[in-house]
């Protein structure tokens, strides 16, 4: 059996965290740690070496962009997905922000699509 | 000839022939009877009759002259009244136009001050203009003569009562006298409304009325006459005697005491002939004053001369008659015959001349050049005729003044047209503003809705996994819910596209490439509906500044609309050509003047379908967001609004022409890159 990938999910919406964690874990491929703020996320990232981070963009306190910056500074090889209500052609998500992340997922996203994007990004980083 | 004049002629019971007969009768009587007796009879009879005739004539001439003069003075007063109305109305139109300028509507103090300053400097009649908010608090104020400081801003408490009214109307105060300058002025209050019934504030304008003086003083009434203007409250607005204005009293207040302001007519006082009219818009009275003495001067002079001449004539004849002897009777008769002829001819000439004048032939002159009183009388008569001719001349001048008033009216009509155009533009702006407000609101709401949609989407999977649902029926239901989430997302996506200004990457490009790429993407839909595509595009087109992907969205939207309009197939034509803007057209909710100026080079692209067309009544609404004719859930009602918003950001124009049952043509006009020539 393959080793489960460790995923850190940061989203201030509790139900999103709960559902996504459950859905991902039910595939048997992931071990998901879900937290409700950027601060908590950074704390968890210090304690554990994750294989993938999925973070919401708009959060009070440390936002998604700051989370990406902090984590990438420590480990540029850690894949990070931005999970947001914003589309990439809108002014909120600028090309700069987009380029910092390794992928953008626009809510609402159904589970199949989410899963496909995660697999793709992990595959890309495994090859590195 | 007027009826009045006819009746006057009838009343003048003197006739050239009768007079001659009378004198002949006298001669015959003299030849037959005693000269003394006849002489006395002649004295009494002729004296009385001629005196009566002269008195009748002068009385009637007086009446005619009075009627003519008052009619002319009335015309003059009316002209003045029209000019007054038009001038003040024109100022009012300017204020109304200012009140709908968007920055003024927004009560933008900085811009309003700039605008008001311009107004005050360009119109010397504006003493002071201010903008006040809904409750009457002034926020901007500009004065012609003073520097206005913030502490000078007042609260006009009268306006507070309108604060929440939906029916604020413009109104003006009574005429007042400025304490500073001693000049009359009125204050005009013009509501500023965002749209009908939504009061934003007020424009408050003090209008100096002394500038109307030149208008009135340039029209004199005879030599001793004049015109003055008075308001309903008795305040003088214009009078040649400025002192009276400062005192504010109508010099004929007693005369007009019981006459309502809106009445018109003529009054004769002991000394003056007063003609008055009402100015409707301003509610003022215009009065012309002519001293009676002057009005009747020519008649009185003629009357005096006639009677003094008559006295002299009679005494001369009397003396002569007493002196002649019966022996010289026949010689005397013959001499008398010649003599009377010499006298009656000029008199007859004068009588004829007077009648001609009474008939209105004012160019009549009497040709009598003797040195005696008849000569003087003739000269005086001619003088009178000249006076009358001068009056006629004045009448012509009045006609010219009327022509001027016509021009004024035409100008005010033009102004009205311009105002209506402005009003239309304002409505369009309001509409655009409303749409942008909808967009902003929608964008906020959309983001808040997307999160819950995300929860539903993930939650569906969660429930499915948690409850380990394998039931195919239930799986179908889950898919339905998922579809609903996607549909909601699609609408929100459209809303965001519509409201959030996406950044364009404009590059000079060939529109043909965009068209080809778009056609390729809808090729399948075209063939499925059996639609034949015809391209009427010249081989080389001038380049246009466009964002390729945005413009592609436009074409895909429009092509798909065309496909939906032609479920049974048909011809779809894409036509491109260049056009030099030579006139402006008004399309749906947009006008070409908003984007182009005459002489601009543009590229026009038309997409013409032969489908079901769009009913006339809904055509004006097709660019409104959420307006759709498709079944619920099928169309977002955002296709065309988004398309327009994209074309707008390209500084282009999109318009639509459609005939129900025949088809629809979408017309896109884009500015050509400068330096590009016509293809």
What can you tell me about this protein's structure?
The complex is a heterodimer of chains A (128) and B (679). Chain A has one domain (5-127): 3-Layer(aba) Sandwich (Rossmann fold). Chain A is 44% helix and 20% strand. Chain A has helices at 14-25, 38-47, 64-74, 95-100, 111-127, and strands at residues 5-10, 30-35, 52-56, 80-84, 104-106. The radius of gyration of chain A is 13 Å and the shape is globular. Chain B is an alpha+beta fold and 679 residues long. Chain B has helices at residues 3-11, 16-32, 35-99, 102-105, 109-122, 213-217, 242-247, 253-256, 292-295, 297-323, 329-359, 373-466, 472-499, 511-528, 548-565, 639-649; strands spanning 126-133, 138-143, 171-172, 176-177, 184-195, 198-208, 226-231, 236-238, 265-268, 272-279, 284-291, 507-509, 531-536, 544-546, 570-580, 601-609, 653-659, 663-671. In chain B, helix 1 packs antiparallel against helix 3 and helix 3 (35-99) packs parallel to helix 12. In chain B, 29% of the residues are buried. Chains A and B meet through helix 1 of A and helix 12 and helix 13 of B.
